[in-house]
């Protein structure tokens, strides 16, 4: 899951003309300091929905907004209906 998210993140960076602002997407990287803006994250979530077949943010009982890349990946792993 993490590899798919990381690969998709890099694809969205390229599509939007943004650059990765950190050496690597480690779990402790702050999302808002990583290179994607809010539109980029919307594109990332939509692209992951197409690839994975689910959007965990629409499945949550209570909204949670991840602040780090690790939290973002955890949400996808925990909400994966295909696990």
Q: Mind sketching the topology for me?
A:
Layout: H1 2-16, H2 38-52, H3 56-59, H4 69-79
Structure at a glance:
This protein has 83 residues and is an all-alpha fold. The protein has 4 helices and no strands. It has one domain (1-79): Non-ribosomal Peptide Synthetase Peptidyl Carrier Protein, Chain A.
Describe this structure as you would to a colleague.
The protein has one domain (1-79): Non-ribosomal Peptide Synthetase Peptidyl Carrier Protein, Chain A (Orthogonal Bundle), CATH 1.10.1200. The protein is mainly alpha-helical and 83 residues long. Helix 1 (2-16) crosses helix 2. The chain has 4 helices and no strands. The protein is globular and about 30 Å long. The protein starts with a helix and ends with a helix.
What descriptive keywords fit this protein?
single chain; about 80 residues; mainly alpha; Non-ribosomal Peptide Synthetase Peptidyl Carrier Protein, Chain A; globular
CA gyration radius, whole angstroms? 12 Å
Topology order in helix (H) and strand (E) letters: HHHH
What kind of assembly state do the chains in view correspond to? Answer: single chain
CATH architecture verdict:
Orthogonal Bundle
The backbone outline, from C-alpha atoms, is: globular
Q: So how many helices?
A: 4
- CATH class wording: Mainly Alpha
Major sheet details: none
As a percent range, the share of helical residues equals: 40-55%
Number of domain modules: 1
CATH topology grouping: Non-ribosomal Peptide Synthetase Peptidyl Carrier Protein, Chain A
- Structural class call reads mainly alpha
Beta-strand percentage? under 5%
Number of strands: 0
Return residue spans where pLDDT drops below 50 for at least 5 consecutive residues: none
Give the overall pLDDT as a whole number: 95
Protein name: Acyl carrier protein
């Amino acid at each position: 899951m993490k590899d798919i998210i990381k690969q998709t993140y890099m694809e969205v960076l390229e599509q939007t003309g943004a650059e990765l602002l950190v050496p690597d997407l480690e779990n402790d990287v702050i999302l808002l300091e990583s290179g994607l803006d809010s539109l980029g994250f919307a594109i990332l979530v939509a692209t992951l929905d197409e690839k994975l077949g689910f959007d965990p943010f629409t499945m949550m009982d209570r909204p949670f907004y991840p602040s780090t890349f690790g939290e973002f990946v955890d949400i996808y792993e925990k909400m994966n209906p295909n696990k």
